[in-house]
Amino acid sequence: MKNLTLLKSNINILMQINYMNNIYYITVATKPHPVLDKIKERVNKNNEKIHLLGGHENRQIGWEGHQNFGVKLREVSDFLKNPDLKSDDIVLFTDAYDVVYCGTKKEIIKKYLKLNKPIIFGAEKQCNPDPKRASEYTFTSTEFPYLNSGMFIGRVWALRKCILEYQYNDKDDDQRFWTTRFFENPDLIGLDYKNELFLNTVDMEEKYFYLDTDDYIAIYKGSNPMFVHVNGPVKTDLLKYLNLPNYFSR
């Protein structure tokens, strides 16, 4: 029995190492940004790679623009059209300008596989952009019951099923898009209710949150999220977390 358990453990480790070569970290970054620089520093320290999408736009988008989030959807859809991607490869997406990266790809894969859904999104405490849809969610008694589209991870085949036919509109809201896909595809999409991978900070209980940006360790109520996302239009907490100059007051 011990030998069988050891064999299963070794197979699992080998599988995780194999996936290390088949995970693609992507973000949409249309302009340079100090928070993105911090993400790239972490990626480089980990000897990893990040794919920066949307640089040809050279304009502000999202909260720093005119809430024109359609670019994010288009760039993700276009990336998934790459014929070199295998259907079982994994794509990790995070926002570029309001996220702290606290993990490694190896840790991310391990946590993702345990969540046992083809696509996992971060969860948040507010139901946006359509509060009336809150009643459609199942686990509303949890602290973070609602989908947030700023961070997700999934198999290429599942993501393609959800977004490959997307028709670009600059004014589209990516969170509205993914919320609809979540309700349409409960077998494909799950939420990270316990912040194993993704923590969205709006309305969290700050006294339970710890972030060490020297060693890049995040803890919230016993969970160890790989990414911390200061979601929503107010980004002043990032100044505290990352010790940045007052970029967001410009």
Q: Which segments are poorly predicted (pLDDT under 50) over 5 or more consecutive residues?
A: none
Number of domains: 1
In which order are the strands of the major sheet placed? 2-1-3-6-5-7
Task: Work out the helicity level.
Answer: 25-40%
Structural class: alpha/beta
Shape: globular
Mean pLDDT equals: 89
Number of DSSP helices?
7
Count the E strands: 11
Share of β-strand residues? 15-25%
Rounded to an integer, what's the Rg over CA atoms?
18 Å
Sequence-ordered SSE layout with sheet pairings:
Layout: H1 2-20, E1 23-28, H2 34-45, E2 50-53, H3 70-80, E3 90-94, E4 99-101, H4 105-115, E5 119-124, E6 146-155, H5 156-163, H6 174-184, E7 189-192, E8 198-200, E9 209-212, E10 217-220, E11 227-229, H7 236-242
Parallel strand pairs: 1-2, 1-3, 5-7, 8-11
Antiparallel strand pairs: 3-6, 4-11, 5-6, 9-10
What would you say this structure looks like, in words?
- This is PLOD1-3-like GT domain-containing protein.
- It holds the Pfam family GT_PLOD.
- Keywords: Glycosyltransferase, Transferase.
- This protein has 250 residues and is α/β, with parallel strands linked by helices.
- It has one domain: Spore Coat Polysaccharide Biosynthesis Protein SpsA, Chain A (Alpha-Beta Complex).
- Helix content is 32%, strand content 21%.
- The chain is built from seven helices and eleven strands.
- The strands form three sheets. It has a six-stranded mixed sheet with strand order 2-1-3-6-5-7, sandwiched between helices. The protein has a three-stranded mixed sheet with strand order 4-11-8. The chain has a two-stranded antiparallel ribbon with strand order 9-10.
- Helix 2 links the parallel strand 1 and strand 2.
- Helix 1 packs across helix 4.
- The longest helix is centred in the N-terminal third of the chain and has 19 residues.
- The radius of gyration is 18 Å and the shape is globular.
- It starts with a helix and ends in an 8-residue tail after the last helix.
